[in-house]
Amino acid sequence: MMPEMGGDELCASVKSDIETSHIPVMLLTALGDEKDMLEGLENGADAYITKPFSINVLRANIRNILANRALLKRAYAGLEDGVGQVPPDCHNTRDWKFMASVRECVMKNIDNPGFCVDMLCGMQNMSRTGFFNKLKALTGHAPADYIRSMRLQYAAQLLREKDCSITEISDDSGFSDVRYFREVFRKYYGMSPSEYRNSMRG
What we know:
The protein is about 60% helix and about 5% strand. By secondary structure, it is mostly helical. It comes from Bacteroides ovatus.
């Protein structure tokens, strides 16, 4: 037993806090009846292993958790329109809702070149450090990189769908300097905005 609070209570505390809900929790416990297992899993545990345990089972659980986290990270970082739709097998809806909220805030401010990480943190009611750690853990991106990726993906959408000039698309995507826009677009997509438009309309 842990001092002061049980593992299931600690798990519930970690999983209910938006700044820590993304952290995987594995309960390794002597409490092996069905009621205890259900309570631990309902509190958000990613795995529930009873003592005595096999080291191979423990390792397999760790591998599975890490593999699932990698899949989720790709999904969160994908920035698709459906990012806010919770997949049926996702038990951590808090993180999906967080990502949907972050995406919505960025999209509402996509054409504002002054929109920055501090503003996004404020909209999420989180400290800069807490927000950085959360977004980095979920997507693999720092907040500034995430915002820039969103801007570039929006610019790519405009290039596919609109006949605006490159300067207008740069402005509509929140880039105040068209030369910088061209530079980061080329780095992200491997071609200039004009080349991208031509390749999409081929």
